[in-house]
Design brief:
The protein is of the alpha+beta class and 393 residues long. The protein has 2 domains: 84 residues, Ubiquitin-like (UB roll), CATH 3.10.20.70; 247 residues, Creatine Kinase, Chain A, domain 2. 27% of the residues lie in helices and 21% in strands. It is built from 11 helices and 13 strands. A hairpin with a 6-residue loop joins strand 1 and strand 2.
Length: 393
């Protein structure tokens, strides 16, 4: 882990030179934001344009160099947000990463999600998603904020869930700033709360139709990382930030179809449970960025964590699938899939749920098992021959 330093974000200087300087109308900055090859890391780069884009169609494609040896990548703009940091006409641009042959790059799962959500059978069911993102704030030493200087045994039961007060709640300033930054940016954020342990929080996006909730979740993650620079706290989406701890971070996914939201919807929800059970072992490897490895320590079936084996229940937070008591009472609504870990890729998980529940597939593709095929900017053989020629001359 990187050792802590004495560096601090200079808020007063940032205000003087970013917020207080007047710029001409033709001076607009676009921050291109994209997901890294590991499926977790986020990156960004800035470009100046001469006017504020009115829609995503007004944002030009861009490119960047990835890895060593270098691979050319293209940045395809897919969602536009207001910039809560620079403000004014400046914008944040969420991008899809394409390889040098214009196909989806490694770990680009959005393209497949768009294809799934675009099926007529899926569109007719108007799938809604509400995505819950649990995360942990860390200090400069990598400890969850609010924890003692040395790791100590934890109390047997959570004491921080929805907590209020200086002895039980830590990091509210960053949490609140994130909520407001999301609202300003245009993320469809629906709320948040303190979670089970000190330094652990959650925000939720949606309900939104199809891929929109996934785009908003990734932008919400970016905003948290970017804000952490100013609050001098790191943010991690690791499912088990402290391996010896009982607590973990999840990425619970709330899902409903049009039929589930109408009268008799509870019966529709229960009808899909056997399909979820039949594909359970295929679904688990899709639930975290390491192909299921990160989620293993979290799937305990206790302390409100999903189990390794499939189960469902009314208001059972230790089950794989939870049906809320309100849904049972009203006879319609949604199901909560509690299997995904906090570092899940929402494009992959939501697409899988739609395939199982609406399209009724029996086999799920696991892209984490597929080999990575580099698409280099310069063919190694050509480069070697060129080098050999230079040496002979």
């Amino acid at each position: 882990m990187v050792e802590p330093s004495g560096w601090r974000f200079n808020s007063s200087a940032y205000k003087r030179f970013v917020h207080d300087l007047d710029l001409a109308d033709d001076q607009v900055l676009l921050e291109y934001i994209y997901i890294g090859d590991d499926g977790e890391t986020m990156a960004c780069k800035c470009r100046k344009v001469d006017k504020c884009p009115e829609s995503i169609d007004d944002v030009p494609m861009w490119n960047f160099a990835a890895n060593f040896p270098v691979e050319d990548r293209f940045l395809k703009p897919i969602a536009l947000y207001k910039d809560p940091f620079r403000r004014g006409p400046h914008r944040l641009v969420l991008c899809e990463v394409l390889a040098n042959d214009w196909t989806p790059a490694y770990r680009n799962f959005r393209a497949g999600c768009v294809e799934t959500m675009g099926c007529p059978q899926v569109e007719s069911q108007v799938p809604w998603f509400g995505l819950e993102q649990e995360y942990t704030m860390l200090d400069g030493h990598g400890l969850p904020v609010g924890w003692p200087n040395r790791y100590m045994p934890e109390p047997p039961l959570p004491t921080h869930h929805d907590a209020v007060g200086m002895h039980v709640t830590f990091g509210r300033d960053l949490y609140e700033a994130h909520l407001f930054a999301c609202m300003y940016a245009g993320v469809n954020i629906s709320g948040g709360n303190a979670e089970a342990c000190a330094g652990q929080w959650e925000f939720q996006v949606g309900p939104s139709v199809g891929v929109k909730a996934c785009d908003d979740l990734w932008m919400g993650r970016y905003l948290l990382h970017r804000l952490s620079e100013e609050f001098n706290m790191a943010v991690t989406f690791k499912p088990k930030p402290v391996t010896s701890s009982y607590y973990a971070n999840g990425g619970h996914t709330n899902f409903s179809t049009l039929a589930m939201r109408e009268e008799g919807g509870l019966d529709v929800i229960k009808e899909c449970l056997p399909r979820l059970e039949n594909t359970h072992t295929q679904f688990l490897p899709l639930c975290d960025a390491k192909g299921g490895e990160d989620n293993q320590g979290r799937l305990t079936g206790s302390y409100c964590q999903a189990p390794k084996d499939f189960s469902w229940g009314i208001e059972d937070r230790d089950a794989a699938i939870r049906i809320s008591r309100q849904v049972e009472h009203e006879g319609k609504g949604f199901l909560e899939d509690r299997r995904p870990a906090s570092n899940f890729d929402p494009y992959l998980v939501t697409s899988a749920l739609v395939q199982v529940i609406i399209l009724k597939v029996d086999t799920l593709r696991n892209p984490y098992n597929e080999p990575r095929i580099p698409k280099l900017a310069i063919d190694p053989e050509i480069k070697a021959n060129k080098k050999k020629g230079n040496q002979s001359s």
